[in-house]
Amino acid sequence: MKTRNHSVEAPRISAFNKRANALAIAFFSVVILLAFLPVLLVIMSSVSSEESVSLYGYRFFPREFSLEAFRVMSRSGSTLPGAFLNSVLITLGGTALGLAIMCPCAYALSRKEFGHRKGLMLFLMIPMLFSGGLVATYMVNTQVLRLRNTYLALILPGMCTTWYIMLLRNYFVTTVPDALIESARLDGSQPFQTFLRVALPICTPVVMTVAIFQLFAYWNSWYPALLYIDTNHTELYPLQYVLVNIERTIQAMNRDAAYVSGTNSYDLPSITLRMAMVVVALLPIMILFPFFQRFLKTGLTVGAVKG
Amino acid sequence: MTRKSNTLARSLAGENRQLSLMTVPVVVWYVLFCYLPLFGIAFAFKDFTPKPGQSLLKNLFVNSRWSGLENFSFLFRNPQSGAILLNTLFYNVIFLVAGIVIPVFLAILLTEVHQKRFRGLVQMTLVLPYFLSWVIVSYCVYGFLASDHGQINAVLNALGLASVQWYQSPQYWRAILILTGIWKSCGYSLIIYMCAITAIDRTLYEGAVLDGATFWQQARYITLPLLRPTIATIFILSIGSLLSSDFGLFYQVPMDSGALQEVTQTLDVYVYKALMQQANFSYSSAAAFLQSAVGCALLFLSNALIRRVDRDSALM
User: Fold this and answer.
1) What is the pTM of this model?
2) Rounded CA gap, A52 and A56, in Å?
């Protein structure tokens, strides 16, 4: 049993004296600088002018600033704005649907009076150990559920995770007092009503945590698109998959161009455009990230720290 | 009295039914997306010969003949397999060790830094890559390694050295992939270990300081032993995925470059390519079956092993 004193925080005694502390700060400053460099490079490259990049390469300090890449991107009408919209729809839809089915289930699992609790837990745990593997999943999704080339292929497979259901359930168990549920029941509230009106409002922190993790997961997902969306359904591509594909197209076209001659191909997305697209995919995460710190931390630690 | 308990029982049954109803959508989802594919394990033991226009189940169980362990024996006889298996194990062992040593070291140091806000800044910066997709990460790497515009070649040129065609030079990629993998996952483990350290009773340290223990002694004799359960948990979970690898790291980060295949092909990449590029369902699923069977066995094995050494650190 851990003892936690949130209210009375004892004065922390650090093993570091002033000098050691300064050294540690210097060390960590270097570490985080190095860790941030790759992201910085992408951002800086995206706001460089095309000529400066083609002359001097991707640089941390662009010779010449330019937002041309972003302008081209929003102008090119065809793929990118559509892909952005796809990503937003998939992300919001998948997260909302997932929560809508996971939360009630987790609540039911948290109630002792629910008869099938143990059996259902086992039912949810088994897939964590055994899975049919990629082939079977692929075949079922394409041939039985007929998800190929649909939005649903990008939404449905990622909707639930046993981890999240357990996380929600544990929170319901520890935070919702039995007395509260009991009194709601005496007032004639049905379980679903109790869940919606009593339990859920208390549990917004954990719901937020799961929501944020799901938002990030959907925003970042590209594997389902790789598996289930054909090249002739580009209108379904999420942003991340456009990024995967742009590179492929450029590679293929460059290879072909190298055979023919060393000509410039104007209509290919330029060097900075590539990075600008990455920034469009990256920026929402970077912007939301600081706001969600608290939730992120609880979400990250729940899986591994034994309590 | 009896009537009261009767109505109570009836209302309980009603509540139970409603609670069951609340779980139905999740149960349906699990049946469709987890349990339905389970029969697909049969792919690994079948010589899959589908007839067009017939249902998947009929094709798998009626139209295809059982082939016993043929798929597996082919897998083992395939000259590539050894290298693929070795790659998978090589990277996973490195990630397993580095994924514990580096974050634990950083966590022990960082906990002692006085400034709370700086501690937060470090954690958040280091965990940022964890929340980026492999696609974005692959471009972060590309910014450095692109042969004509890459940062590294620019530096090499400035030093008077010749450019390197990074995406054609397999000799560098073990290091690149390891660095990238650690960069992406380190912050996550760091936060877990820091939380575990914060949960340690501070009076232990106060006592140690009174006895004149140095920082390293405190780390060695207090922090590390008390971190053991957390490290064990992470160890067991990673052992379970010893044969799995992050598809994005090995497929997308090298931009699926054919020249790098000898060092980038791991089991997951093979399973994907066998399925999508060669349409070789049987070998692909044999490889996947091997992966999850071995993973499952290793999970239980390492758990049993750890339970024998230290009962409290075991997972199950």
Assistant:
1) 0.86
2) 6
